[in-house]
Amino acid sequence: MVLPIVAYGDPVLRKVGKEIEKDFPKLDELIENMWETMYNASGVGLAAPQIGLPLRLFIVDATPFAEDDDLTDAEQKTLEGFKKVFINAKIKEETGKDWAFNEGCLSIPDIREDVSRKDTITITYCDGNFKEHTETYDGVLARVIQHEYDHIEGILFTDKLSSLKKRLLKGRLANISKGKIKVEYRMRFPNMKKAR
Fold it and tell me: Where on this chain does Fe cation bind (predicted)?
């Protein structure tokens, strides 16, 4: 089922997600709904807070990035078919050089900005079967995971922008929170009772 995506300004996007227990009710159904919702909005990642649930859960499918001609064959292969569920994730280390990459967010439609992040991360998480993993990612994969991880920590990519950039975006962000924006997917706006 395609769920409405929570828009900028909703307090749930600022909450630190709660850990998920193995017996969480209908977890498989929730994850399936998140995949449907993400693909319906042409996203590459989606976190539970973006569908209104303050939980430590996010999904990533980096396959669309594999078509980028600027990447090496090895990078394209790594991204192609990379589809994972991250439950109770914890980034253990961020290392390497800071690099800027143009980011967007389904909760903040029509705004894209360069965000600087470390290029390598080590993360522990459980997959959809609650099998624990510790893995290291770099480049675009690290970037997508860091962006989604921020969501379960109550952080948005706009928080990482300069004060000047934030001031310049203030009006556009306010319009998003008021629902004064056209989007091709269902959204739930903070000041409205129903999704549209």
Answer: 105, 147, 151
The number of angstroms, rounded, from the C-alpha of 46 to the middle of its chain's C-alpha atoms is: 4
Stated pTM of the model: 0.94
* 133 annotated as a binding-site residue: no
Is residue 148 among the annotated active site residues? yes
* CATH number of this structure's domain 5-188: 3.90.45.10
1 HSE (CA, 13 A, CB side): 6
DSSP-assigned letters across all residues of 28-76? HHHHHHHHHHHHHTT-SEEEGGGGT--BSEEEEE-GGGGG-TTS-HHHH
126 known member of a binding site: no
Across 124-133, 140-149, 172-181, 186-195, least confident range: 186-195
Specify whether the backbone of 142 is left (phi greater than 0), alpha (psi in -120 to 50) or beta: alpha
From the candidates 113, 148, 153, 184, which is the catalytic residue?
148
Is 105 known as a binding-site position?
yes
Residue among 182, 180, 153, 144 at smallest CA distance from 64: 144
Alpha helices by DSSP H, 44-161: 73-79, 139-152
